[in-house]
Amino acid sequence: MTSHQHSSSVDALRSSWEHALRAAGKRVTKQRLAVLGAAHTHPHGTADELHRAAAQELPELALPTTHGIVNDLTAAGLLRRIDVPHSPCLYETDLGDNHHHAQCVRCGRLEDVACAVGHAPCLTPSDSHGMRILVADVLYRGLCEPCAAEETEPSLTHREKEESLHG
């Protein structure tokens, strides 16, 4: 991708975010756009990670402001919040493709997984209690390849580990 193509794709994204903010009844601010940009370039980031990334563009952006913006953008449907066990909430801008996630239970790595059946909802509950189900969030949990490989290596005793570290 040339720098001109990259620039026009960033401009198109920015324009779509501006339109989406207005459609949600939100003011278009440089802080909101910076957080959306951070979420786009750092998918599955925590609010703190998004703050660090957005602060590259806006050094004056305060962490509490970022947390407020993330909550605001999630409520407005411009960010997707991903709740994973034993981790802070994660955020992404990929909203409309009905994908799921796989998380390594050891290192916490999170990856996108295509929808199991290709349409929403991917799962149908045995009893919907009269609700029209729109979406089912699926989180697969397992071990990523590097973590699984570590588990299959013979484990050293504590003493052997110390001896290998200190020669």
Automatic annotation (TrEMBL):
Keywords: Cytoplasm, DNA-binding, Iron, Metal-binding, Repressor, Transcription, Transcription regulation, Zinc. SUPFAM superfamilies: Winged helix' DNA-binding domain. Gene3D superfamilies: 3.30.1490.190, Winged helix-like DNA-binding domain superfamily/Winged helix DNA-binding domain. The keyword Iron applies. InterPro entries: FUR (IPR002481), Fur_C (IPR043135), WH-like_DNA-bd_sf (IPR036388), WH_DNA-bd_sf (IPR036390). It is found in: Cytoplasm. GO terms for molecular function: DNA-binding transcription factor activity; transcription cis-regulatory region binding; zinc ion binding. This is Transcriptional repressor.
